[in-house]
Amino acid sequence: MAQSQPLPPETTVTHEHKMTEKGKELYHSHKIKYLKQIDGSWETIENLLEELSECSKELKPLRKLEKNILKSREKYCENSNQYIEFLTRKNNEDSNDALPTFKTEFKKCNEIIDNTLQQIKTLKLTAAETMSVVPVESVRSNNSGKSGSISSSAMARKRVNAEVQRTKLQYAEQQTKLIKQKARLSELETQSKALKDREKAEVDADLALLKQQTEAAVAEVEVKVLEEAESDRRSLSLQEDKENLQKVKMTLTEKYVNEQFNEVEQLKSQDKNNNVPQDIPNNQDKFSSHTPAPRNQLNIIPTSRNLPKFQVDDLDRSIVEDIKPEIRQKQTLNPYAADFELTQPPLPPNHDQSVVSDLDKVFVEERFITF
Question: What's the predicted TM-score (pTM) here?
């Protein structure tokens, strides 16, 4: 009788491998492929086991059946060993659970094959014995006829039938085990399919969630862009308002300065028309320089002055505050105008100073309002 096929050497498990989703899918596809190959080779063996009950109990058919079983067993063991090596190599949670279960089933299947081969061997011996008994009885009962030969042949057939029935009973038990094993394999295949469906559903759910997150992120970006655009528009509007206000201030300042110059020109014209004497009396030092002179006796003599050059746009209240007091006293309302020295002739005792005083008040008020 042929010996049972040995199992592959066991390897020490160090740690389980963590597989990705793609790795899990590939692992289950290979696992199902190996199980289908094993089922196919074992189905061939089952068919041969069924032939044993129908096979003639002659020596030649029994030898042929034994040869076919050995050949099918070799293929079954080859597929089983490849599957065991696959589970050992993967070394993950599922393979570590499936490996001991399959090894137990593999051992039982080999025991069934061994028992079948043992039964075939017994049947072969019985057939050989039957073939050897018939000639001996014929020689011994040469004188008594064929009665002894028929009796021995009937005894041998009964013995063979008893062995066959015993063998059928054993095969019935083994067939029941194999049916259960096949049901377990079908259950594993169903579980693998359910696992794939669950993973697919999880991926679809993740994709739906990612789509919603993308839409929310896009909406937030749009709101942020609109807020920035609105902020830029407001800043630009404030800048334009500031520039317009600066232009208005410059226009009003220029208008005021021009009015002052025109008024000075008018005063000069009035002085010429009134024939005011050009000589200034020598006693002007007797009067205070802060006493305002009559309108028709003002002599304004421009003097040269080196002023810092700057644009009116750059004139700021902080700059004006930094100018020295003595310079501000000499400075006119126009920052670009030259300094003027105000000389006043002596005033008559009964001179009316109300007009000049009012004009001085206007200059002072307008000057403080402007700066």
Answer: 0.37
